[in-house]
């Protein structure tokens, strides 16, 4: 039983056609009513998690970094090893407070180093006594960073780590310049007078 394309259909009972705004009062034919449907395919969505690193992870980031990682990587590696946490609003607030505290601490340390550098500049030269070697300006032994640290402690009552002292090789009497790296951005220059007694 073959039907022609001009067969009349009753569209008035179809809610779908009513939603498309068709005039349902008049019967229509299939031939003059072509409704096109488009099917949209959705791309598979990436499932990402916003995390903060609790410790340094090679090739990913450093402690405190905020980043997006795939859900599986977080679930299978970062979470079981305790290297990351999911970011929450309270965690972000705590992070900002911690960053502000660290910045304030760095600023305070730099200011202290600058004040200490000014103290070293006002002191003048530190005098180091060594036993004379007998031939002109030579002395027995050398003046080491530890010697300079001991003299600084005796004169201005400041404890300084000997690892921050850069001293040229001193084997003769005379005036030398030592550098004290008090902070990554602050270096103090100190004069050292070596004389034989």
From TrEMBL:
GO terms for biological process: translation. PANTHER family: 50S RIBOSOMAL PROTEIN L9. This is Large ribosomal subunit protein bL9c. Pfam families: Ribosomal_L9_C (PF03948), Ribosomal_L9_N (PF01281). Residues 92-119 form a coiled coil. NCBIfam families: L9 (TIGR00158). Gene3D superfamilies: Ribosomal protein L9, C-terminal domain, Ribosomal protein L9, N-terminal domain. Belongs to the bacterial ribosomal protein bL9 family. GO terms for molecular function: mRNA binding; rRNA binding; structural constituent of ribosome. Keywords: Chloroplast, Coiled coil, Plastid, Ribonucleoprotein, Ribosomal protein, RNA-binding, rRNA-binding, Signal, Transit peptide. Residues 1-21 form the signal peptide. It comes from Kalanchoe fedtschenkoi (Lavender scallops).
